[in-house]
Task: inverse folding
């Protein structure tokens, strides 16, 4: 026993030393692969890593689609800034970080600089509350202030914040929290679309966008299911599945992938043709269900 | 004397029990520590070496990167909206060689294979209609003289045009 224990301790020292040596390698070494210690650990990493990645469209992309659809800016549909004081559990903080993040994307896409600063402030507070460092730093806030008139730069900075949040949570074994943030962002994007659809029931672009969330929702459920279950994850999964039960009836037609076309800039257009179209009754049911779930999370 | 021997045996037994309990935890924490550090390195590689290649596209804010051994495969599933232009970027550390990626529709019909385009790292495209695409990432096998193969990081990123 003494002998095997010594071996474990020795192995520990060697592994940690190797890792420390590698970590001190600097930028030059970063691109040259991993050391023996990393190779030894990679089996564990690979066991943990999902061999199937599920990616969800960004809230910024959703906001862009909403704006492209001709919708006007409406501050009243966003989660009020002052609601932040209501969020004490980690699950609520994470989900509402996603919601405020989507609101931040929406205000930025519509050039509402002052509102964007408020929502960025709320994102920072919730990220701090969740112990996420490096995502909404004072430097990032300064970058936003100095780029407040440059929407493109603003969107890049916001996108960097999402990425830093996701990276921090995954690196710290809190991918389930990241899942809640992503789910909150997706839910708010859909909620904003449904509010617009409610007041503009003939906006075909928005109706199409709501219908097409059928596909993202399937991936989102698969993503959340891949994380270890806790109370927050279980609750969100149940909420998403409740919405999915409506989307299950939404029709989807498709024609085979053929006849690739190329734009004048040389970008190909590929894949299947077809459409996903919800009936007015299904849209109404989605509006009601999303409102009910979102209200539960923001109160 | 008997008491001293008895105490000594007891102490030895206690030490052995403590070690039995502590050892697996120590081992596990080291492995978890290394794997977390490895993921952090992988994320570092993605942020420094891959994200800049997405410009002028905006990434979707999700970091899909992991450590791979030669010969391993992975898949990414994502829905893409019609009317948007996308950049799909797959990049691996040099030690892994040329990473191959294939883009398929939901019936797994091949739409793009970077091997047929000089192993480029990214592909820009639009979709005819909003749909789910499957991206298959293939890390090439490596012939090695000894049994040691090196793992490396692979990043799978999606960006959309502003």
Result:
């Amino acid at each position: 026993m003494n002998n095997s224990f010594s071996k474990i301790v020795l192995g520990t020292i060697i592994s940690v030393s190797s890792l420390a040596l590698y970590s001190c390698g600097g930028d030059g070494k970063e691109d040259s692969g991993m050391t023996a210690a990393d190779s030894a650990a990679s089996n564990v990493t690979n066991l943990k890593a999902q061999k199937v990645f599920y990616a969800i469209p960004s809230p910024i992309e959703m906001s862009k689609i909403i704006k492209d659809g001709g919708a006007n800016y409406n501050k009243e549909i966003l989660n009020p800034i002052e609601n932040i004081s209501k969020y004490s559990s980690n699950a609520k903080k994470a989900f509402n970080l996603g919601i405020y993040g989507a609101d931040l994307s929406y205000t930025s896409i519509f050039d509402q600089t002052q509102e964007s600063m408020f929502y960025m402030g709320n994102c920072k507070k919730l990220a701090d509350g969740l112990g996420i460092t490096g995502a909404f730093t004072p430097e990032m806030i300064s970058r936003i202030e100095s780029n407040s008139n440059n929407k493109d730069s603003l969107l890049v900075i916001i996108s960097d914040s999402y990425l830093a949040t996701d990276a921090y949570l995954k690196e710290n074994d809190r991918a389930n929290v990241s899942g809640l943030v992503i789910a909150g962002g997706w839910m708010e994007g859909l909620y904003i679309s449904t509010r617009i659809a409610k007041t503009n029931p003939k906006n075909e672009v928005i109706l199409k966008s709501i219908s097409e969330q059928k596909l993202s929702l399937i991936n989102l459920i698969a993503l959340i299911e891949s994380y270890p279950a806790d109370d927050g994850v279980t609750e969100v999964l149940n909420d998403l599945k409740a919405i999915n039960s409506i989307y299950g009836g939404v029709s989807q037609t498709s024609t085979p992938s053929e006849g690739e076309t190329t734009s004048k800039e040389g970008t190909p257009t590929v894949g299947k043709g077809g459409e996903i179209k919800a009936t007015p009754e299904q849209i109404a049911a989605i509006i009601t269900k999303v409102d009910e779930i979102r209200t539960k999370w923001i109160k | 004397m008997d008491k001293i021997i008895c105490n000594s045996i007891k102490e030895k037994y206690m030490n052995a029990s403590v070690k039995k309990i502590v050892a697996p935890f120590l081992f596990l924490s080291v492995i978890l520590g290394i794997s977390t550090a490895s993921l952090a390195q992988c994320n570092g590689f993605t942020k420094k070496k891959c994200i800049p290649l997405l410009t002028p596209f905006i990434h979707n804010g999700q970091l899909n990167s992991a450590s791979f051994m030669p010969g391993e495969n992975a898949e990414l599933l994502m829905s893409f909206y019609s009317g948007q232009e996308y950049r799909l970027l797959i990049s691996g550390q040099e030690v892994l060689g040329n990473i191959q990626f294939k883009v398929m529709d939901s019936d797994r019909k091949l739409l793009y294979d970077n091997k047929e385009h000089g192993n480029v790292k990214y592909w820009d495209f639009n979709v005819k209609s909003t749909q789910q695409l499957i991206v298959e990432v293939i890390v090439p096998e490596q012939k090695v003289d000894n049994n040691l193969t090196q793992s490396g990081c692979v990043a799978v990123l999606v960006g959309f045009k502003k």
The mean pLDDT of chain A is 85. The two ends of chain A are 56 Å apart (CA to CA). The CA atoms of residues 104 and 120 of chain A lie 6 Å apart.
